[in-house]
Amino acid sequence: MSTKAYYKRDEIGVGKPGFSKTRSIIEAAFYGNNVVKVNTLKEAYELAKNSPGTVVTDMPVYRGEEFGLEKDSKVLLFNDGSITGRYAAARRIAGEPNVDCAELDKIVMDAIYDTRWDTMYHAEVYIGLDPEFMIKAHLLIPEGEENIMYSWMLNFQYMSDEYVRMYKDSKPIGNEPDIYIFSNPQWTGTTNPNYDPKCLCYFNTAENCAAILGMRYFGEHKKGTLTIGWAIANRNGYASCHGGQKRYNLPNNKSYVASVFGLSGSGKSTITHAKHDSKYDITVLHDDAFIINTETGSSIAMEPTYFDKTADYPTYCEDNKYLLTAQNCSATIDEDGKIVLVTEDIRNGNGRAIKSKLWSPNRVDKIEEPVNAIFWIMKDPTIPPIVKLKGASLASVMGATLATKRSNAERLAEGIDPKALVVEPYANPFRTYPLANDYDKFKKLVAERNVDCYIINTGDFMGKKVKPADTLGVIEAVVEGNAEFKQWGPFEDIEIFEWDGFIPNLDDPEYKSQLKARMLDRVKFVESRENFKGGYDKLPEDALLALKKVVSGLN
Q1: What is the architecture, at CATH level 2, of domain 240-294+372-504?
Q2: Mean pLDDT of the chain, nearest integer
Q3: Which of 27, 82, 110, 344 has its CA 20 to 30 A from that of 474?
Q4: What is the pTM of this model?
């Protein structure tokens, strides 16, 4: 599929697709006489390299000429100040209850007017890397923010000759217009008491547009763009996935396609890129953003590169060879007098970098084979390293009540406990459509495509740490068909593969009490959706019944 960029004159007008109020406010700014079009990565690199405050390291971009850069390009570092994570409290989504679009439109009008004195840069990328699903996105951002623009063009697919041809060969679908995003990290704020005075992220995903104001962190721009891309996918028959997917290429021309879903810091990237001591031939789709076709079961990557934490990659680490840009890290001089990055979150939490596609040697943009399994990654201390969910309703609702802990990729509102166990449906805090849409799509994958569904706990189990070797061990047993699952205690719809050192004792009153409490937390969460946001995220009745059946097994 492709999106629509050009219109016949009789297609333009009131009530016609692509011509609504918010979109008209944002799109017009892209054609101002203060706008400079940035057409190539080479142009974006030079602008970012020369932007005030950029640290041009002496670390070369590995094989940069293969994806649109000059051969002598260097890794660029830019630091955002004290804000080094996403800020969900600033998000406003059109269509949700109590979101005043008329009020937000006026704020965006003024924000755009205030940039008339600035030079603005217009960049374009593709989201989705196969002709089956490719959409075009536009970013408008002021001079001085060249590093955000350059990273944005790297994170998504810049307009290379290959992908331009691919996009031309894709078929337009429906009336989906291109994505337009207006960003001004230098926004001076609003006096309107209904909003944070310094930052605002307004999404009108039904109209494929957004305004990102007062937000310097690149992750806001990456996930903000993906937010709209995922919404388009949702409308067109795809399950939108914040997770990773890999294919195990097994003997006798067999394969096993596994999808893992988890928040930043849950282990989804580690699992996706794990080489399993070279026991398998592995093909990687992506570790953060992809979509699954609910009719065919095939999957498509949304972006070519990786926006990864730098905490686990010391300066000397071989993986740093694949860095393209870095954010919120430090720098120093090495023994050869070269400027190099200082990683490991010494400067601050959530240091980040964009790594090239080459980091994963067996990358593909699409996995044609239908997905075999979904793994919900949780950090729930009452869940053993792995359990298998039977029944489509339970499998989907456990994803809708995915329990985990916050990571330092998020900037939390005042008063929020960063250590509290929280529910983040499908590990995707970037949803801009009703939760039932995701519930139905994942339920369909299990019910109609016979996708297996598991929970894996990568945190602690009753005080004992589940190590990466444990997590990879249970996954390997599943892939090889050696995992012997049996009914877990009284639960008719949950099976357990008993892993040495982590076998739950349902005869222990304390454990049973905690397990019941965590399951009741899920029940309460689903019940709360009936009134939260006016019922915007209410789930079907079978979702709640599936959870209550689990709780009844503990009574």
Answers
A1: Alpha-Beta Complex (3.90)
A2: 94
A3: 344
A4: 0.94
